[in-house]
Request: fold
Amino acid sequence: MINYIPIKKIELKALEGIEKIRPFFHRINISFYDISFNDLKNEYKDKIAVYNYNVNDVQKVTNKRYRSKGMFELDTGNKVNIIFNNNDKYLPSVIASITHPTHDDLYELEDKLCNKIRSSRHVVSSVECTVDFMCKNDEQSRVGDLFYIFCRNYYAANAKRTQFFGGKYYGYASERDYKKEREGGNAVYAVHFSEKNRSESKRVKFYERGPDEAMRKNRKYWRYSACDRVRFEVTVKRTFLKNILITTINDVLRRPILYPVLFDECRPLFQFKRFIDKNYREYRPPVPDGRYNQNQLEACKCECFMEQVFWAKEKGLNIAQCLEDYDRFGKLVEMTKEAIALYEKEFIKNPIVIEIIEP
Reply:
């Protein structure tokens, strides 16, 4: 018989094990309509390169929209990946993707690509807003416990479906052995806001992660002993960005993004809930037998709060009247707000000031 650890003990250990909260922009994609590859080549000269990919492979990755991939290096040292040679004249001529962008990176992109070459028409097509919850390294189970309680209580108001993938997740049984290598990589929990991935304007992910330098060679995951954080990642696309007045690079440089995305007054994307009637449906931990794939999720789904919400909706419950904030996560949410506000204050060097004129 399996003896399970009480959930209160798991939550306490996981939340107290957070050592640091680190928000940042993971990736920003920008679509340019009036710039060609030759323009970039003239500007960056020996700092630009074309990847030697087969045209068919590039078209497969880009859904038959583009034929070439390359990169160029900014004066700041950061590298920008690009796709170009579009198959349709109505598509952007170049799409640039910059990872871990700084204020100076984006300022250079705006200065050189939008001002010096020509007054280029461009839009910010997607932004990955990221928060790393760094865990203490005194116990290997800290990361797994934090990942588990996030899945167990995370709530998004208009979510449509959830997805578990990556490495096998063994629940929170006391018999679990985190020293064993997880098959298939690190555990990932995704929340989708559309039935089809390509049509959704935003997506949420939680996943176990380690530092970049500790990633296994030729594999896109970390040994569990190297995992030191749970990453919360929200990808927002053009439709969503327009609602928070983000269109151009200049908007990113002068307006906050992370805070309005994660803590929108109507539908925040970083919140944790529970049912007011705690006994209406009982949480049941999955049997930690290693089965963790899309076809065998029934045992794991009852550890996922969003799946409970979907189940409640099917039974006719009014979700708006059934949920309350989970107070045990209150301090974490406030600490995350403070960390994001500080990060964006440092990132935005010349904020837009809106004057309110009294009538």
Residues 32 and 122 are 4 Å apart (CA to CA). Residues 34-120 form one domain.
